[in-house]
Design a protein that fits this description.
By secondary structure, the protein is an all-alpha fold. It has one domain: MetI-like fold. The chain has 13 helices and no strands. It has helices at about 5-35, 40-45, 55-65, 65-100, 105-115, 120-130, 150-160, 165-170, 175-185, 190-205, 210-215, 225-230, 250-280. Helix 4 packs across helix 7 (about 150-160) and helix 12 packs across helix 13 (about 250-280). The longest helix has about 35 residues, at about 250-280. It is globular and about 75 Å long. One of its GO terms (biological process) is transmembrane transport. Belongs to the binding-protein-dependent transport system permease family. Its main location: membrane. It is a multi-pass membrane protein.
């Protein structure tokens, strides 16, 4: 291990500063523009880093209209329910596949891994969802992505790395598989479960494509669909707010974007410390 040179330390510091600025500039610009007035937006001709006349009119417009509020509630519900359902199924499958005495576990594992390489495609998936009666329901946003093969493999590998003596000792004491899973395995798996939970939560929170395919009723749209409609396509959200123009359109668009990004940013710091431990520990053995 050589001690880093002075030039090397300066180069690393410069690289970190450049990366931080590249990430922080658009984020600060979006947040600043969401609080900007019409005068600030006209003056800057783009993103407003620091508004001279900050106002909450954009956020009042959003929550008065009800469109974003309803979509936010839908996204939160889908994310919470979908994450819990995916964790429940993934933990059950991973635990069963990690036990060597389970009949057919190898075949089930290979079937799950097969989905990582080959996908049925959009049309077969759409026909399957419609044939199951899930079209235009919230279940269509959860069921097709209920289990991630990658998360399954990571969690299975973590369970296999636990000492076999723990399982043997629990069985000697008369514990069954369910009790072993709940009382022994899960408490030792907090790190990897936190990582997988965040992976699932981000997937459900950003469920745009499935919403576009499977939801026909605009009242059921989650937040990503509202982003597409009112930010990318530029439709006026003010018109949906009882006809009252309370803020400039660009400020409203940035406010919707802030609402879509901030929840995940708030959750990530609490789970960040588990990332390295959870992913690396779960990826030691295949």
């Amino acid at each position: 291990m050589e001690r880093p040179t002075r030039i090397g330390q300066i180069a690393k510091a410069v690289a970190i500063v450049v990366v931080v600025l590249a990430v922080a500039y658009p984020l600060v610009g979006v947040i600043g523009t969401s609080f900007a007035s019409q005068t600030d937006i006209i003056k800057s001709s783009g993103l407003v880093l620091w508004p001279d006349h900050p106002t909450l009119d954009a956020y009042r417009t959003i929550f008065t209209g009800g469109v974003v509020t309803r979509a936010l509630i839908v996204s939160v519900g889908i994310t919470v329910f979908g994450t819990l359902a995916s964790l429940l199924v993934t933990v059950g499958m991973a635990y069963g596949l990690s036990r060597r005495d389970v009949t057919g576990s190898r075949f089930i594992l290979m079937t799950a891994l097969f989905t990582m390489l080959f996908n049925a495609g959009i049309i077969p998936n759409f026909l399957l969802v419609k044939g199951l009666g899930l079209y235009d329901t919230y279940a269509a946003l959860v069921m097709p992505t209920l289990v991630s093969a990658f998360n399954l493999v990571v969690l299975r590998s973590f369970f296999m790395n636990l000492p076999e003596e723990l399982y043997d000792a629990a069985k000697v004491d008369g514990a069954g598989d369910f009790r072993i899973l709940v009382r022994i395995v899960l408490p030792l798996s907090k790190a990897v479960l936190a990582v997988i939970s965040l992976f699932y939560a981000v997937t459900y929170w950003n469920a745009f494509f499935n919403s576009l395919l499977y939801l026909n009723d605009s009242d059921k749209w989650p937040l990503p669909m509202v982003l597409r409609t009112y930010v990318l396509q530029g439709q006026s959200l003010n018109a949906a707010s009882a006809g009252e123009v309370l803020a400039p359109q660009q400020a409203v668009q940035m406010a919707v974007l802030v609402i879509a990004v901030v929840p995940i940013l708030c959750v990530y710091p609490f789970l960040q410390r588990y990332f390295t431990k959870g992913v690396l520990t779960g990826a030691i053995k295949g």
